[in-house]
Amino acid sequence: MFKGYIIEQLIRERKVKKADVYRYADIQKATLDNIIKGTNVPNCNTLEKIADFFNVSIDIFFERDKNDNTMYNGNVIKQLLLDKKVTNKELLRYLGTEANASLAQIVNGNPTVKRLEKVADFFGVSMDVFFDREKPFKACPSAHEDNELQYKEKIALLERLLEEKDKRIALLEQMNQLVNSVEGRTKSGQII
């Protein structure tokens, strides 16, 4: 998650003026203020310029929260058990002798990588699922609010454009053949 307030901290620590930062980043003062407040997330170029100004890595602006979705989420195991209609005992049996713990200890505790790998194998999923890193694809509206109908219209227009280009190519090939045949006749001594 982007942390704009870190820019404010850097400004104070380095004792620089905001004006120097927004001029260097080639942005307006209001834009910098909004970035610091967190109401505006800068694009990559702006962020690189700000990081260069302070001579820091871009990563400094993306500190992880305790609530960041990269933490282990054992509730995913409960959900997989429900979705796949599998009992706790079946999972524990699959885990074998390592499973001297109850399912609650795996779900609520901090299981080892080895144990999580076995759980992932049991369900046929990636380990990323347990860390909420694997998300299903969701179609998102673009900035221009294109929708499926508009895309279909664009595809139809592009197909028509291709047809016109094919016709033009065919016509040019015919003209090329005609020119070549005329050149061939004049070289052979025939006058047209």
Task: Provide tags for this entry.
192 residues, mainly alpha, 434 Repressor (Amino-terminal Domain), 3 domains, 58% helix, 0% strand, flat
Walk me through this protein's architecture.
- The protein has nine helices and no strands.
- It has 192 residues and is mainly alpha-helical.
- The protein folds into three domains: 5-61, lambda repressor-like DNA-binding domains (434 Repressor (Amino-terminal Domain)); 75-131, 434 Repressor (Amino-terminal Domain), CATH 1.10.260; 142-192.
- Helices cover 58% and strands 0% of the residues.
Chain-wise SSE layout:
Blueprint: H1 5-14, H2 18-24, H3 29-37, H4 44-54, H5 75-83, H6 88-95, H7 103-108, H8 113-123, H9 148-187
Quick structural overview:
The protein has 192 residues and is an all-alpha fold.
Total of DSSP H or I helical runs spanning 4+ residues? 9
How many structural domains are formed by the residues? Answer: 3
Average of pLDDT: 79
CATH class of the largest domain: Mainly Alpha
CATH topology description of the largest domain: 434 Repressor (Amino-terminal Domain)
